[in-house]
Each structure stands twice: as C-alpha cells, then as structure tokens.
Amino acid sequence: MSRSTGVLEAALARWEHFGRPGLPDGGFHVSRLPGQSCRGLYRNGSNRPVYRPDGHILSWSPAPGGRHVAIQTAPRADEDGTLVVVDTILGVTAAFDDVHCRYDPMCWDGPTLLTLAARGRLSTTVDVTTGTIREEALPDGRWRHFTGGPNGLSTRSRPGGRTQIVRTDGRVVVAEAEAVRRVAPFAELVIVQDGSGLRAIDPSSGGRRWEWHAPDVNDLVFAASESHVLVAGTRRGRSVLIELHHGKPLREVHPADERGSLRVGGVSFDESRFHVLIESPTRPPELVGFDELPCGSPDPDPADGAVTRWISITADDDVELSVAVTAPVGVTGPRPTILTVYGGFGVSALPDFEPTVPTWLESGGTHAVAQVRGGGEHGRGWRIAGYGRHKRRAVDDLACIARGLVAKGVTRPELLVIAGASHGGVLAAACGLGAPGICAGVVSTAAPLDLTALDAHPLGSHWRAEFGADGEDDDSLRSLSPLHRARSLTSPDGVPKFLGIVLGDDSRVAECDTVRTVEAIRAVGADARVWICADAGHGHNHLDVAHRLGLAVLEFAAYAIGGRRPNDDAAE
Known about the structure:
The protein is α+β, with helices and mostly antiparallel strands. About 15% of the residues lie in helices and about 35% in strands. The strands form nine sheets. An eight-stranded mixed beta sheet has the order 29-30-32-31-33-34-35-36, with helices on both faces. The protein has a four-stranded antiparallel beta sheet with strand order 4-5-6-7, with no helix packed on it. Strand 16 and strand 17 (about 190-195) form a beta hairpin. It is globular. The relative contact order is 0.09.
C-alpha cells in the first residue's frame, strides 16, 4: 500500500459523509443524515430533526396517529438505555430515567405505552399524558410485549419449553410455538414469526388462517400492509425479497445492479407502500420503494469503479464455500486483501456498505467477505455445522477460504489480513494463530478470546452454547481458544502481526482476554499490540468513534503487509 495515513484518513472521511437512512414507520424515520455524526428522529420528507440526542437511539416506536414517539436512548455506547417520549406536536421530550431498557419491544394502546424494564423482569406501563408509571413483576421466563389484538400480546419463553403467546391484559394463552421472534398486526389478525417462517392467527382464539415456511431463508424480517406481506431474508448466501398474499408467494426478487448483488438491510410498510433499504460495498445505503428496486443482471465487464464477484472454494471436506470479493474493475494479479468473517449465531455475512471498504479499494486493495459454517447464509444445516462442538469447522472453513484466495491468485499470504469483530474476532484470531504463515496480519475486535472462561465477560453466558462450552470438555475448547493457541506458540516464525481492539464502553466483552492474548504473542517475540477505542460500544457508535475504529483497522492492515507502522498513541 502506497498511501499515507493522512490520505487514508481523508478518503475514509469522504466515504463516511454518506448518511444512513432509516426505514419509515408511522410517518417518521430514525436516520443519520449525510454529514451528521449520530442518528436522529425525523418526519418523512423532512431533514429537520424532531429529536436528536447527544447519545444513542437504541430503538423507537411511534404511537398511532404520530402524536408521540417512544425512544430508548443511552448517553454512552453501552447498550443499556432509558426511556424518553417525544411529543411531536409540541416538541417536548419527557424523560423516564427510572425505566431501564435494552432494545425491548414497545407497543401502544392509545396514550399508554407498554414495554419491559430491568432487563425484562418488569412489565412497565407509561401513561404519556400524565407521566404515570405502573410496574408489574413478571413470572419466570423471558417476556416480550408486542402490538396486536385488542390490547396487545406478549410472549413468554422458558428453557426447555415452548414459547407461549398470551394476551397482555389477561395472561390467557392464545397460541404456542417452538420460538417466537416477532408478533405484528395484520388487518384483524396478527403475524407470528417463529423459527422457520410466518403464520397468521386470530389474536382472540389463536386460530390459524395461513402459514408460510421457508427453511432455506434465514435472517428473516417482514413488513405487512392490510393484505400483503413483504419478506426479506438470505437465501443461498444472497439477499432475497418475497411478496406474500394469503401466505402464498406472489413474486420473488433478487436485488442487483451492474456491480453485483445488493444487500437488503430491512423492509417496512408506511404511507401506503413497501420500503426497502439496499446497499453494496461501494453503493451507500439507499431507501427505495419495492416496485423501484434494481433487479438487473450484474455487468460482467463494467467500464469503471469496483465490482463484487462471488468465488467458490472447496473446503477440506468437499463442501463448497463462498466468498464475496470486491475489487476495482480491471484488477489482475495478487493484491493486498482484507478478508472479513463473522460465522456465528446464524447471522449471515453479506457484502454491505462499510466506508473502510471503498477506502481500501481506492488505496489499491481488495476486500473479501467469507461465508463459513456457523453463519446463516445457507439455512439451518449450514448454521448447525459450525455451532457448538462443531465450532472448529467454522475456523477450518476460514482457513480454507484464505488458502483458496491465494490459490486463485486473488492475494498472497504476505498480502492478506484477516479481520473479525465479536464472534468473528474469535474466528479470525483462532485461524491466524492456529495456522502460522496463512496471513500477514490479524485484527480481532471486541472478542472473547479465552473460550474456557467465557463467564468472565458481561454477556459470556450467552456465548457458552455457541462455542460448545456447555458439556464440551476443556481440552477441546482449549485447543480452539485463541488465547491458548497464542500460549502454545514456540517461535515468532510465521506468526501474523496481531492487533487486538478493545472497545472502551463494551457492555458484552471485557478486555482481559485481548490483553492476555497479546502478551502471549509478544512473549515469543512476535508483533502484537492492544488498541483501546475510547467511547466505543458493542452496538451503535457515533460516526467519530466509527472513524477512529475504521482508520485503526486500515492503518494496521497497511502496516501488516509491509507499510509504515501506524501511530501508537492509543496503544498499550
């Protein structure tokens, strides 16, 4: 890489200038406008904020009629928020500091708001006209409140049992399902999203009117009009949209433009039309109507810019893996490459718009997104194949993709940096430290790197099943754990340069594992360091924080493949 840090930073700032529009709902949207550092609440068609906090908007819900909007907001990036209600007519904001919430669904019954507080232990009713708060302790289980039916519906799930759908006002069981992810009104019915599809039921009797199941569609989200449902999800590693009428598919759409397939970031129904968020590595997020979606075939030889192509790589057990490679048009021969990965919790890794990607491309590099088992790109079987005691398969898939990119001439080991955040940071570190010589550098961000001590992290208990820590023997976990792979190193030969990024306001992952992993790598004379990003959280971050994070990754990647060492002011 020939560009200086200053040039990288300038290019990154230019790509960051693009905003991130939000999906409209009830006449409003929560978006980050171009040039703004944080998200605000706006009326549709207006750039004047109705409410824009200094902190972070975690979730929001407009009341019917649009007079009030409930917002969960946090002053810091720690994901634990409090409730505010905005009067959109008077421009007055009422803060309910004692209502502590964390992305909990909120529903309205006239001027009354119903949500959860104290991490789901309290059902909280707020009368926004009087400011009165009423709290009710809930029976054991995980509860969620949803809009639907005469007075709303709730779900209750408990370990080992089916999820119950109950009337919020009477605790009468309406229906049961293996899992309920969302309940939403649909004319006089409600739509229940379970683990494999949708079903429309009568909210009074629980009677089923129709159902639609698509086991091969993952990451499912939906929006409903009075008569139709628009489903977005991932099928065979790409975004897909499916329009339903009475539970029957009317049409299926695969968004794409001349540069490649497009990622769907969400759907909504508002102002009598379906809205879709689309993006790609070099196409900033854009809100379009469903009937206006670009759905042409990608140009096999566009004149300029960058193009995303899918490469198939065969794993060591003969399963076909996919990797999305974005590179400038006309590029040939091995190039400096950043390979990113997530590969867990059934979440699909799709090429999307991240300002560091076009910045890296402008600097002469290539960007790749790995789809490994454990993610959600290819259905339930794909996810299970890299889950729990099979987690090693996800790491091995990543290694196969890294070697496959070299074999296909996309890059060389000395030009390759593997990067991942959170769960992806575990895979990136385990791969790079377990296969010396496979790459030049590893970036691991906000990752629990000691798989034998997950409970040391604030949300560590939620990771145990994902990594097979429940019932799996310690020896197997230790052999996969990045920290223990680092401690087993005996020589710096072939060990990639390592950057461990810690988020200063992380409410999920503590910094201890990253620090110890870096110390272990340094102990054998290899190059490793910790970088702490102050004010950064595991969830939403302001643009200035995201800028520092992105620049740190780009600078390190350039350094790992032979450039100048990045600024160490924030390093330990």
